[in-house]
Amino acid sequence: MKPTPESMSPRIEEVRRLKQKGLSMTQIIDRLSGDEPATPNNVPTATRPKPAVAPQAHSHPLHLTLDDIEYPAYMINQNFELVWINEHAQQRFFGGHPDLPQTSDARNLFRLLPVGRNDWGSLLHFHVGLAKSRLSPDCFGNLCRGLDPVTYARLQAAYIETVAEPIRPVVQSTVILPANPATKDVEQIHTAYATFFREGIFIALIPEAEYANEMLDLLARRDEIIRGLLRKRLPVLTHLAVLVADLQGSVKICSELPPAEYFELINEIWKVLAPIFRKHHGTCGKHVGDGLVYYFFPQPDSDYLANSLSCAQDIRKEIQRLSKAWQLRKQWFNELFLNTGITEGQEWLGTYQSPTSVEFVVLGDTINQAARISDFARHGSIWVTKSLISRLPPDERARVVYGVRRRAPEGREVFVSSSFSQMSSLLEQEGARMEKLHDIATLSVTEIVEIRPPSPPAPLPGEGW
Q1: Buried/exposed code over 406-422 (b: 16+ C-beta within 10 A; e: otherwise)
Q2: Per residue in 31-68, pLDDT tens?
Q3: What is the pTM of this model?
Q4: Radius of gyration of the chain (CA)
Q5: What is the total count of domains within the chain?
Q6: Residue 270 belongs to a domain
């Protein structure tokens, strides 16, 4: 049951009294939490952890689940974009509006919350504290691009003033949610819980003295939480790069190896490549057989298109090492090649669910194009679309060596750097007639030869010769 003005705790009255005396929300929270008064430079400490309050008698289940949370709860990804929100958070923050924006950029939490209002200050500093411990000032500034100047300035000031939350499994802090006349919610002190996963940050805001122990017990069941959140994840229209890689000659290799060794090989490929995909922020997609499908989404601290290309190059190097190891082991001359196709686009991202697993799925032509390009590639080559190269930031594009091999009139092969070709022209050059590639005949592509390492930073004045 929601509290009424008649049943507000004395602490709320104390908050109002202190606000009338001119204290900031940060100073009020410090005083009510038993901390030392705010320092003269007024550095906000609204995100300091607060000891859990012993729960009062209530009718909540002893084994709390996501569906049992009767207060605002939501999950954001590493870009602070909403990927799941419960009904209570929709009511409290967005007036019960049933539909969130469709695009991932528009779901940025700092765009959706009324951060320009002073009475949302403690919640703003809580989220900024989460961001500050993970994002540099430049990355945080990128998250705020496109906001109106006043809101942008307020967020930048909050980043400077706010103390970064420490990196740990669960963060627990005190915030004050303002009154909301539309939903008859009164101003109330809450405990904010944040739990961190590779897929994002889960946040729940529980009124003070409510079922804190049950919430901490739920947050300790990390696997249960993330499975539940992935199943509830909202479909979103997002920019992405799609990488599809297929093992060349897999039928031949399978016929030459005992079944146990073939499955050992495939499992070893997955094992050695998994850290590479994690390093470059790749998300595993729905795959069939011995093929690989990975998605690369915008990141706050790196370019997702460049991540997909660097990942493909690292994969090629690792497969070359693995190929040599199996040649020595089997004393054969077979070489292992993962033929890779990459493209980019804006597509709907959702999940397919089974009783035992959840898989990310992209709807649209982007994944089909990447798969067809992978079918065309040979001998471990990496082929990408012209649109992907064109969308790379200039500094990232300068690191990429790409082009198309063409046949001169006398028959010799010539590599034409920084060029593209329609798929139909490449098929004619190779004398190939592949029916399943006809649907991308007009697609402009190029081959990635190398990705050079980043240039070292220029020396500061007075350094070196």
Answers
A1: eeeeeeeeeeeeeebbe
A2: 555 544 434 334 344 444 444 444 444 455 556 788 88
A3: 0.78
A4: 27
A5: 2
A6: yes
